[in-house]
Write a structure and sequence with these properties.
about 180 residues, mainly alpha, 7 helices, 2 strands
Length: about 180
């Protein structure tokens, strides 16, 4: 495989849009665009990044002959298709969000799109081991890894951003006190 190049960000985006444009254009994605997922990242942005990362993982590990690319992209885009903001006050129904949302996402995906068993299983099991049943398909394993990596990066970036803002504000207050 000498001389083979990894896919560019642009090519990965083209693949995601080729296989998932109907999902990205669906009216329910407006809910994802308004709902926060990790830190200040929306569910829509998170799902798009998980799809990109899933394709990148398949590319970097040379899994093209082992994955259904269409199913991989669609599972990644729909893995958090639960269609609510789990941060909103709701009298407690979101309390077990981490355990329950894969099932809501699968149910909503089945309602709005025609999905096969690979996509359904990948959505349903993307929180393994938080949910007890592991993915049956390589696509589900990739989505699980991409989701975990993306969630960690988004959460840490948000945390670091808040920390840096706090440090800058503290430094500004100290400068202000010294001037007095």
């Amino acid at each position: 495989m000498k001389g083979e190049r990894m896919l560019s960000r642009e090519r990965i985006d083209a693949i995601v849009h080729h296989y998932g444009q109907d999902i990205l254009d669906h009216e329910h994605m407006e809910i994802e665009k308004r709902s926060l997922q990790h830190g200040d990242v929306t569910t829509y942005e998170h799902s798009l990044e998980v799809a990109r990362l899933s394709v990148a993982i398949a590319d970097r590990l040379r899994l093209w002959n082992h994955v259904n690319l269409r199913a991989l992209v669609r599972a990644a885009l729909l893995h958090d298709y639960f269609l609510y903001d789990w941060h909103d006050y709701d009298d407690g129904s979101h309390r077990l969000h981490g355990f329950r949302h894969p099932y809501a996402a699968e149910r909503n995906a089945r309602t709005d799109f025609e999905i096969d068993d690979v996509v359904a299983n990948s959505i349903r099991t993307h929180m393994f081991p938080l949910t007890p049943i592991p993915p049956k398909h390589l696509e589900g394993v990739i989505v699980n890894v991409a989701d975990t990596a993306s969630a960690i990066q988004e959460t840490l970036a948000s945390w670091m951003s808040r920390l840096l803002r706090r440090k800058r504000a503290d430094a500004a207050r100290k400068r202000q006190r010294r001037r007095r």
